[in-house]
Every structure is written in structure tokens, then in C-alpha cells.
Amino acid sequence: MFRFKSLIPAIFLLLFATILNAGGPGTAKYAGEFLSLGAGSRSLGMGSAFVAVSRDVTAGYWNPAGLAFINYPEIMLMHSDQFSSLVKYDYGGFALPVGERNSLGLTVIRVGVDDIIKTELPRPDLEVGATFVDDKGQLVRNTPREVGQFSSADYAFFLTYAKKPSDGFALGGNVKFLYRSLGDHSAWGVGFDLGLMFNPVSNLQVGINFKDLTSTLVAWDTGRRELITPSLHTGFSYPIYFSVMGGRVQPALDFVFRFENRRDAADLHVGRVSADVNMGWEYTYQDVFSVRVGSSEV
Q: What is the mean pLDDT of residues 232-250?
């Protein structure tokens, strides 16, 4: 029988580890921002307030613990064009239940910008706009010129394992591999996520996801090293069922805590710690028709 009180020491220990690993030397603000674009139309329609709600294939992205609740294999593919189709975002997820209380999952993410114009100055040693005599003896200005094109792409691969020790409690983890390319240069990274999901009382669903728990190192072939700081994602949801007409209302509220000194870029901040709030609401009629609204961080 799962008891919420038994979780409290572990949660505080993980919270302490998250804060301890955040904000150290080499951390890069927004280094892992390409992993914050979301996954799945349902979650995005609810304002990305999905840490306590995700109990499908997208749980590998939102909260790995939620993957333990799937009952059959699931697959999802998503494509999105953003910023006037300049940015291409692709998501793919696969989940497989193993026995009655275990699940495995694979998540693949790509964010890319193609055909970026590459420019260079004819005379890098001179100021922009300065005049000089070229090889043909003509007086020309030192202005950027197009010399080709290149692409930028970020890839993420999540391997997820989730287990449900009891009906009201699940835990799961991600091992994630990152690959980033920018022109002729590339980088690799490895990180870990740890998620919990439980029902402390009645229908209240609580989700906690410790992302990049030990900080995720991204090493470039240029010798530069970046650290994606840990972040704490907490969510609450309370589905309300109606026996008449078979409907369900599910409000959800998420808090995203980061430790990379975002200050005024976040909804709330105290020193290096910032918090963003995501809110969502869903009405579902007999699991056939749904209406969703939400508000998320900008």
C-alpha cells in the first residue's frame, strides 16, 4: 500500500540535489531551450500543464513516471512549423507496456533551421563599411557578402523506463542523448530525468519531474562545454467525473522552477531561482469529444 508520507524524505533529497547541481560554473542560460517546445496536441491545448496529467506515450517527454499507466503500445508523431516556417520541429514517441506494472519508451526530437545564409567580410581586418582597393584596383566597401548556406539542428533521444509499484504511485526515468550541429561543428550531451506521479488524496493527481537532475553536459568539438542546469517541474490535476452524460472536467496547474538566473524573463523570480506557471482545462465527453484551453509561459 503506497503512503504519501514515505515519499517526503526522497522528494526533499532530490530537491536538494537539484538545487545543488544548478547554477555552477559553465552553466549556459537557455542551453536546453529546444527541449521545451512540448509534445502532443492534448498537452499543448492545455497550456503545457501536463506533468500530472501525462499518462500516455508523451509521458516520456512530460513526466517519465506517467508511462507506467499505459495499457497497450502507443505511438505518436508530430510536426510543427514555427516562426513563419523558419524553424521545423519534429517529435516522435513510442511506448510499450511490459507486464502489468512496467513500461518502456523511446522519444525522438528534432529542432532545425535549414538554409541559413552564410556571409563574410572581404576584409575581416577592416571595420564594416570601410573602403579599400580590391584585387582589380577598384575602390569598394567592406560589407558582408553571401558565401554559402548552412544548417542548425538539435536532436534529442530519450530512453524511458517506468514502474508502477502500486495503483496510486509510479516512478520513471529518462536517459537522454543530445546531438547538436551548427554548420561544420557539432556537440554531444548526456543527461538524466527522474519523475514521480501519485495520488495523495481522492482524485488529486500530483506529478514531479526532475529534469537534467545531475546537469546535462554538452561538449562541442571546438572544446567549448555547456551545462544544461537542472529544473524542477511540478504539476497538479483534479479530474471531476459526471455520471450524467459521461463527461469529465480536468483542470491542471504546473509550476516550472529553474535555477539559471532568468529574472524578468520568468513569471516570478527570487535571485537565481525563477518560476513559470502553466494552466490548463479540459472537458471530455465520453472519451470522444474534448474542448481544451490553456495558458503557458511565453
A: 88
